[in-house]
Amino acid sequence: MPNVFDYLAWRGDLTFAQSPFNEADSLILCRLAYIPFDGIAPASFVQTIPLADAAARCLHGAPPQSAIPLPAEAGAPQEGSAEPPRRFRLADDARLLAALATSRRFCNARLSGYVNLFDPAAEKQFSALTILLEGELPYVAFRGTDGTLVGWKEDFNMSFLTVVPAQKEAVQYLCAASDSLRGRLRVGGHSKGGNLAVYASAFCGEEIQSRIESVYNHDGPGFLSEVVTREGFQRILGRVHTFVPQSSVVGMLLQHEEGCAIVHSTNTWLLQHDLYSWETACNGLVFTEARTRSSRFIDSTLKAWLTQMNPEDRGKLVDGVYTALSASGAVTVADLNRPKTAVSVLREMKKLDEPTKAIIQQAVELLSASARENLPVVLERMRKEKE
To answer: Read out DSSP for 326-373?
Structure first.
């Protein structure tokens, strides 16, 4: 099935004047936000670097060819120096960056405002990038969760906190970007980045909000009900475009007020969160009519489960599990796959205080009960839809 690379083969030689911006372009820019541009793309919104130059330095460790100097805070190398190629989170990220740098559609884009913050003490993981497209509106892209436990912990904090540190950073970032940009703009992100894009657009202030053309949320989680009922959120709601794969789990978490377009993914279940698995056409994404039975079941089960736990208990549950995971020595989610780490996690779970253990046990029991109750409901709903 065709994906973003096929889309670039079909549309990469066309400018935006020849073929208008669409949701596949947004998907690409949101994945671009995951590229490690540390020390390459300027933190300033005034300074920019051509995408082609940034790609060369990321892929080959080449010095920049642009005549525009990078600011000191961007960590630009001395003239004539080189640096080692970057490590990419996904192997396809390097392939995507190379394809963008050589495509007529994206090669003249310029990058600015690169921020990458990581603060374990504050349980904060935040990164964003502003892309200035040739002949198109600027695009403010927020990165999703990285592979660290801290990044995932902040995501789970959304289940009991009305605002987390990354969301505050996102609002400040969008305000700063809009101060340096002229006219209208687009905002978007994937996974947590999609959540940040919606949150920042909702609470950046009415004047900035009026300049936002569209907000793209690619399989990002929703919000607590206290958030979606606020005035700023309701004002931006009609410009939010949310896309989820047919077996979405992450994108269906918490509450969504907006409708969701369902994209066909070639992967299965949780692996569908990978943007490279989303099917594309020559003018956008390929959509399907409904989510799968498993997605609906998990969605209804988790929502019912969360309603049975008050925010305080949700917080204790998340904090307790995170304490055990981090005490095991694991730093990334990948570390949890190691047999020794799994043993350490179990050992650390036993060290938790009794009230926390009780909340975890209660949560497991409630989740099990919720699953038993929701399976017949989902099956009956599916049966009626077929009639």
So the answer is: HHTT--BGGGGGSHHHHHHHHHHHHTS-HHHHHHHHHHHHHHHHHHHH
Return the biggest CA–CA distance within the chain.
Answer: 69
| Dihedral of alpha carbons 258, 263, 269, 274, sign | negative
293: in domain: no
Q: Is the pTM of this model over 0.85?
A: yes
Q: Is 20 a member of any domain?
A: yes
Task: Give every CB contact of residue 206 below 8 A, 6+ residues apart in sequence.
Answer: 232, 235
What do you get for the CA distance between the two ends of the chain, in Å? Answer: 30
Examine the domain organization and report whether 64 and 202 are in the same domain: yes
Each residue of 169-208: b (16+ CB within 10 Å) or e?
bbbebbebbbeebeeebbbbbbbbbbbbbbbbbbbbeeeb
Non-local CB neighbours of 47 within 8 Å, separated by 6+ positions: 68, 69, 70, 71, 74, 112
- pLDDT of 74 > 90? The answer is no
A 10 A CB-CB count for 109 gives: 23
Instruction: Tell me, rounded to whole angstroms, the distance of Cα 290 from its chain centroid.
Output: 22
Q: CA geometry: angle at 175 spanning 171 and 179, to 5°?
A: 170
Instruction: Give the domain range for residue 364.
Output: 298-386
Q: Are 106 and 19 in contact (CB under 8 A)?
A: no
Which tens digits make up the pLDDT trace of 85-123? 677 888 899 999 999 999 999 999 999 999 999 998 999
> How far, in Å, CA of 80 to CA of 57, rounded?
12
Residues 273, 358, single domain; the answer is: no
